[in-house]
Amino acid sequence: MKAFFEGIEYLFVDILFKPLDWLRELELASWFGANTLNWIFMIICAVAIVYWIKQLKLHKENNDEYQDTTAHSFLK
User: Fold this and answer.
1) pLDDT digits 0-9 by tens, 31-55
2) 34, 24 in Cβ contact below 8 A?
3) Which 8-state DSSP code applies to residue 76?
4) Which chain regions cross the lipid bilayer (predicted)?
C-alpha cells in the first residue's frame, strides 16, 4: 500500500509539477515570463466576458429574454 502512495507522489512531484517548478525558478530572472500562464488565462477570461456581454445585448435588443418569474415551477 505504501508503494501505491509513493507512486502517486512521484507522479505529481516529479512529473506533473515540473513545469511549475520551472516557472518558479524563472521568476528570479523574469517576472513577466514567469506569469505568462496567468496572462493567458486573463486574456481568455476577458474574451469570454466580452462575448457574453455581446450576446446579452443581442438578446435584449431582439426582446428574446423571457423574464417572467413564473417561468419556473418552484417560483410560483
Assistant:
1) 888 898 899 999 999 999 999 999 9
2) yes
3) -
4) 28-53
